[in-house]
Amino acid sequence: MTQFVDSVNIRTAIVTGANGWLGKGLVHSIVHGLDGVDQSLNKSFDKIRVLVLPGEDVTALQGISKNIEIIRGDVRSPSDCERLVNGFEGAILFHTAGIIHPRTIKDFYEINLNGTLNVLNAAKNSNLKRAVIVSSNSPIGCNPVAGHLFDEESPFNPYMHYGRSKMLMEQGIIRVQEEGMLETVRIRAPWFYGPFQPERQSLFFRMIRDGKGPLVGDGKNLRSMAYIDNLTQGLLLAASKPIANGKVYWIADERPYSMNEIIDTIESVLEVDFGIMCAHKRLRLPSIASDVAWIIDKSLQGIGLYNQKIHVLSEMNKNIACTAKLAEIELGYQPRVDLKIGMRRSIEWCINNYGNL
Amino acid sequence: MSCTKEIADIAVIGSGPGGALTAALLSEAGKKVVLIDKGPHLPLTSCEPFTIDEMTQKYSFGGITVAMGKPPVSYIEGSSVGGGSEVNSGLYHRTPENLVAKWVDEFQIKDLSYEDLVPIFNKNEEDLTISYVPAGNLPKASLKLHEGAHKLGWNSIEVPRWFKYESDGSGIKQSMTETFIPRALKNGAQLISDTQVNKISPHTDEWHLAGSKKNGTDSIPFELLAKKIFICAGAIATPVLLKRSGLSRLAGKKFHMHPSIKIVAKFPEQVNHFRMGVPVHQVKEFSPRYSMGCSISSPPYLSLAMMDVQGGQAIVDSHWSNMAIYYAMTTGGCGVINPLPLFKAPLVKFRFTASELNDILDAMVDLAKCLFAAGATEIYPSVQNSRQIKNMDEMVGLRHELEANQLNLMTIHLFSSCPMGENRKNTVVNSYGALHDHDGIYVNDSSIIPTALGVNPQGTVMALARRNVEYFLRGNK
Amino acid sequence: MLLYESTVVALVHTLAARPYIVNEHRFVLCQCLAMPDFLGLAMRILTIFFAVYIFITHLMPFHRLSLKERIRVLARLQNSRIAVCRDFVRFYQTLTLFSVASEKDWMQ
Fold first, then answer.
1. Which ipTM value was assigned to this complex?
2. Do the chains contact at B300 and C35, CB–CB below 8 Å?
C-alpha cells in the first residue's frame, strides 16, 4: 500500500467538514478502523487534522479521539484553507465539507464550488499528495427509468442548483487534476445513512413508527444508499490506491433499494430489534405530488430561494440509483453492511445519542 | 474551413480488397497514388473479431444495413480502411471455372478465361499466404458439418483462409491492413482516411473529387484533382458515387448477394468454446444453387440467432458450448440501389422470385438434414416464430408452414452492381473495368463481378482487380 | 434526459429482461446514430410517436411505467397485426439482446 507521509514521516489525514455527519463518520473510521476490511486500510494515518466552523461544538469529535487537531475556519476563506494545510506536504486531504440544504441558492456555489476550489488550491500550494473529494449523485441527476443504474461514464445532468454546484465542483476538480500538481479522486455518494446522523433523522424514524412513513407514487422507485462505514471505506480506498488517481467512483451499498423496501425495513427493525410497535400505515401521496413539488422547487430555485421540505418532496418519487462495480474492481471496495444491519445501527445510535424515539 | 487540393496521378477510392490491391500495384509501378477511404485507419487488432466492438468500429452504418424486400436481407459491409477484409472470416475461393465461361458469354467479356486467371490466383495466393488450418486445430463445430455431409455422401471441403497460422491454430488474418495497405504506403502511396468522396466531375484534363473529411465531431470539405480514378468503394457505394456524379445510368440498376439462412444446432457433446476459431468446412454438394457452412457461434451471436425461439435465451445460457450456428448460402434474388435526395445513405431493395425463395427453403431443409446426420439432437431455424425441431419430419412440416417474410436472411457478400463486359445492355464498365463513355475512370471492386458467385467472393475480387491493374499498367485503357 | 433518450433506455431495460441495466443502452443509442440516416430518422420519429402515444393512453411516459406495465405494452406491440409495431419492438430487441449478451460474463 502506498505510504502517504508528510515532510516529517508522519502520515497525516486532513479532513474538512469534520463536524458534519460524514466528516465525523470518516474521522471515526480513521481513528478506530473499520470491521471486515483489509487491515492495511485501518491505521493508515498517524495524525488527523480537521477544519471546523468557528463557534461549532466539537464535543462529539473530541469524543471520537482526544488527539484530533482542530483548526477553526471556513472553506469560503482562502486564508483559512491555507492555514489548514500549510506545512503538511505529502498529506491526504478528505474534503467532505459542503451544503445540501442551504438558506439561499448562492450558498450552493459559495460553499460547494468556491469552497472546494479554495481548499484544492491551498492543498496544491502546500504540496499535499492527494485530495479525495466527496461529490454526490446530484450532478448526474435522476435515472430515466427504474432499473437503470448510473456508472462513472454517465453524463452530467444536474438536478437543480445543488446538482449544478456539484457538477461545477467536479469540473473544477478535473481542471486541477489536469494541472498535474495534486492528485484528486472524486467520490460520488448517494443518500447515506448511519451513526453520527443529525437529529432530524429521528423524525424520519418516528414518522414510520407512527404510520406516516412517506411514500410518493407506488414506492417502487429505486434509491441507492450508502451506509456510512461503506462510504468511509470507499474514501479510504480512494486515498490509498494508486489507480484511483484522477478517477471518479460511485460508492454505495451493494444494490439499490425501493422506497417500499426502505420503509418496510426500518419498520421491521424498529419492531423486531427494538420492540417499538409501529402503526403499519403509510403516508401515501400520489406521484403527481412530487411532480408539483418539482415545479415549485424549480421555480423557487430559479429566483434564488430554497425550501428544504419542497425539495425533499420533489425527489421522493425519483429513481436515483448507481452501481459501485468500478470501485469493487479497481479499489477492492466491498460493501460490508446492508440496509437491515445499517438501519439497526442507525436507530441504535439515534436512541443512544438523542434519547428514545 | 480548410481543404486539400492536390493533383494525383491516380486516386483510388476505397481501400478494401479491390482498392488496396489496386493502390499497392500502382504505387509499386511508380505511380503517385492517393488512396482515400471513408473509414478510420485502424489496425486489425484494434478489437476482437466478431464482437460488439468490431461492429461499432468497423461495420458500415454500425452493421444496421438492410436491403428492403419481402423478406428483407440484412447485410454487412466493412467500413474501416481495409474494408470487408478486416471483418470477414478470410475464407478463400478461386472463381468457379464454369462461371467464367458464362460471364464471357452473357456479358461479352474480352480476353478472359479461367486459364488466364490461374497465374493471377497463384500470385494473390502467395501474397495473401493462403493456408489451411494446422492439423489438430480444426474447430469442432466446423468438423461436425463435415461429418454430417460425409455420412450423407455429400461433397464437403475444407476451405483455406488468407491467414498466417502458428502451430496451435492461432495467427494473423492477412487482411488488407496487414498486406496490401502497408505495401502501398511503403511505395509512396498517400492514405487519406475518414474521408468520403461524394461526387466526381470532369475538370479540364483531370477529374475533380469532392467530399468531406471527418474532423472530430465535425467535417471539413475535401477536394482532390486526379488524372485517373479507380473507384473501389464496394458494391453499394460505388454505383451510388457514379449515379450521384451522373456518370452512369446503369450503375446500381441491378446487384446480387448471397442471401443466407441460418440454423442453430444443439449437439449432445461440446462443439463450441471461447475463441473457437473461424469454421472452415463448406458443403458443396448443391453448388452453385446453394452451399452450407458453419458460422461464428460465440454466445452473443447464439443469443441473437435464438431470439425468435421462446425460451431461447435460457437454452443458450445453459447449453451454448454444445451449440453452433450453421448457414445455407444461396445465390438467388436481384436488387437495386438508389441514392436518395436529402439523405446520404442509399435505398437498397432486393427481390426474390418464387423459385428463388423455394431454393432458400430447400437449402434450409438440406442443411437440417446434414445437421441431423451429424448428430444434432435439436435444431432451431433462424426464422420468426421459430421453434425446436427434433427430426426431419418436423423440419419439412415447418418448411411448408413458412411464409417469405418470416425468413431472417443475411449476407456479407454483395456484388454485380457495375458489371464488366462489352455488352452495353448489361454492363457498366468494359472488360477491364474502365467506365463506359468516360476516359480515366475505372471500377475495380466487387461491383464488377457480373453475377452471384456461389463462393466467398474476395478471391475473385482480388483476381479481377489484379488482372485489370496489370492491363492498365501495360498502357491500355 | 430527453423524451427520446429516456424512452430508448426504458425500451432497453424492458427488453433486457434483467433487473438492472448500466450501459447496455449506450450501444443501442450509438447504433441508432450510426445507422443509415433515413432509417435513423424514421426510427427516431417512430420512437417519439410511440412515447407520445403511451403518454396519451397511459397518462404517464413509458419510462415511468412500472416494469410489468412496460412488458405488457411491448408484448401487445409484438403481437400486433400491424407490421410496423412488430418491427419497432424487434429492432430494439435485436440491439438490446446483442448488447446484453456481449456484456454478460459467460464463464459463470
1. 0.94
2. no
